[in-house]
Structures are given as structure tokens and as C-alpha cells.
Design brief:
By secondary structure, this protein is α/β, with parallel strands linked by helices. The chain is built from eleven helices and eight strands. The protein has one domain: TIM Barrel (Alpha-Beta Barrel). The protein is 37% helix and 14% strand. The chain has an eight-stranded parallel β-barrel with strand order 1-2-3-4-5-6-7-8, surrounded by five helices. Helix 2 packs across helix 4, helix 4 packs parallel to helix 5 and helix 6 packs parallel to helix 8. The longest helix is centred in the last third of the chain and has 17 residues. The mean pLDDT is 95.
Length: 274
């Protein structure tokens, strides 16, 4: 199953049904034009809290607010007709209690039109995931490297090596049992991602995981070569739009300084010739 052929927005149940079938294609988006570009080609569009780093220049995702997520979620929603839109719950909006998570998740969905929310955490978030799902809020889970926990993890390190492996397997089973419709596996060894994918009944979506996952996700600005501050090992640049954009800006600046732009065809005459 893929987005092709659907006249309605894909739903979480459609993504869940892709387990073991055609891979789930997922990208992040933060703006209407980008959402429109990808809508015909992806199954799931994630309004990620990576927007804080990619668009707003923040050093991590910790400073992202509900208001930021709602603003970008509304923008992305205007550009989608078929792909499922999932929106990240920002740091501090769900960890306190299931009730807090429900209030903020309900607000995100109501104000953006998102079909689901995504939150980080494994076994310790299972109760919250179950609470949300039982109240009509589909949840995409996220385990492995969880960027909102970067301060306690000691950096953006690979997770699930050595003694940590069993914990991540338990995390994956816990979120699946709690009712998540899919789970992101970030920056974990390929063999572990394959083991988790085989062990749980919901789709795994890898980022820095394994081609054997049930789907893949990348930050769109990384994939297009627009965000160049750093390049993680797991990113493949399918374009170099950042370089092209800088070259275009340089060409524009040169023509302005040379007074060759605007040219006659770009300006208006005093009178229209008859």
C-alpha cells in the first residue's frame, strides 16, 4: 500500500497496515510549499520538532514550543491532500502526566488538523501512550536516540549497543503493546533494528537504523542539502539545493551591484504601447 491512488488523507490505520509490505516513505516538512512538493510521493509527513534547529537556528529541539509546532503544523496541513500528517509533541508538553499529554495532544490535533502525534520514550511512556490512544489520539512512538533527552544521553550517540540492547527491545514492545501505530527507531545498530522489526506487530520507521525497517524517515532539509551545519552519518543528500541557492544569491548580488538587474524586461514603461 502506498499514498498513490488515495483521494483522502491516509490515516494511522493505513500506515499500521503497511507492516511487512511496501516500505513507509516519510519525510519532515515545516512549510506549505514543501508539503505540496512531497504530498504525491510520501505516505507520512512529520512536522518534526527538528524545526527548531533547521528553521529557527536553535542548538537543539529543547527550546521548541507548542506555539511553534502549531504554527508549522498549520502551514504543512495546508499543503497536504493525501499524506498522513503527524506532529511532534515538544519537550515539556507530555512528560508530566498522561493528562497533560492529552491536553496538549488534543490541542495540537485540533489546531493543525494532524492525524496523529509523535512522542519520545519507551517503557516509561507506555502508560501515556495507552492513555492517549484510549481517548482517540493516535500515537507514533520514538525510541533509540531521543533528541529531547540529549542532555541525559550525553550527546547524539548511537543507542542499543551492548547492555542497552535489551532495554530498547523492551521499549519497542512496550510502545507497541500500549497501542502506538508505529515507532521511529533512531540511531540504533542495524542488527538491533532488524530484530525489533521482526519482533513487534507495528511498523518500524528507521532513521540511522536499517534498510530492513518497515519504513524510513529523514529531515527534508538534510536530504535536499539545504541544512549544511552538520551531516549525520545516516543522511544521504539526494540534492544539493543549499549550494544551488547560495550560487543563485551570489549571482543576484553581482547583477544588482553591476546594475544589470533589473533589466528592461523587468521594469514598467510610463505608457503601454498600443
Amino acid at each position: 500500500m502506498s499514498a498513490t491512488g488515495f483521494e483522502r488523507r491516509l490515516m494511522p490505520s493505513d500506515i499500521q497496515a503497511m507492516k511487512g509490505g511496501a516500505p513507509v516513505v516519510c519525510l519532515t516538512a515545516y512549510t506549505t510549499p514543501m508539503a505540496r512538493l512531497m504530498d504525491d510521493h510520501v505516505d507520512l509527513v512529520l512536522v518534526g520538532d527538528s524545526v527548531g534547529m533547521v528553521v529557527h537556528g536553535l542548538p537543539s529541539t529543547i527550546g521548541v514550543t507548542m506555539e511553534m509546532m502549531i504554527l508549522h503544523g498549520q502551514a504543512v496541513g495546508r499543503g497536504l491532500k493525501r499524506a498522513l500528517m503527524v506532529i511532534d509533541m515538544p519537550f515539556g508538553s507530555y512528560e508530566e502526566s498522561p493528562a497533560q499529554a492529552f491536553r496538549n495532544a488534543a490541542r495540537l490535533m485540533a489546531e493543525t488538523g494532524a492525524g496523529a502525534v509523535k512522542l519520545e520514550g519507551g517503557q516509561h511512556m507506555a502508560e501515556t501512550i495507552r492513555f492517549l490512544v484510549q481517548r482517540g489520539i493516535p500515537v507514533m512512538a520514538h525510541i533509540g536516540l531521543t533528541p529531547q533527552s540529549v542532555n541525559t544521553l550525553g550527546g547524539y550517540k548511537v543507542q542499543g549497543r551492548g547492555d542497552d540492547r535489551a532495554r530498547l527491545i523492551a521499549d519497542a514492545q512496550a510502545v507497541a503493546d500500549a497501542g502506538a501505530f508505529s515507532v521511529v527507531l533512531e540511531k540504533v545498530p542495524a542488527s538491533l533494528a532488524d530484530e525489533i522489526t521482526a519482533a513487534i506487530a507495528i511498523p518500524t520507521v528507521g532513521i540511522g537504523a536499517s534498510a530492513g525497517c518497515d519504513g524510513q524517515v529523514l529531515v527534508v532539509d538534510d536530504m535536499l542539502g539545504l541544512f549544511t551545519a552538520f551531516k549525520p552519518k545516516f543522511v544521504k543528500r539526494f540534492g544539493n539545493l543549499g549550494e544551488e541557492a547560495e550560487a543563485a544569491v551570489a549571482a543576484y548580488a553581482a547583477e544588482v551591484r553591476a546594475r544589470s538587474f533589473p533589466a528592461p524586461e523587468h521594469v514598467f514603461a510610463d505608457e503601454v504601447k498600443k
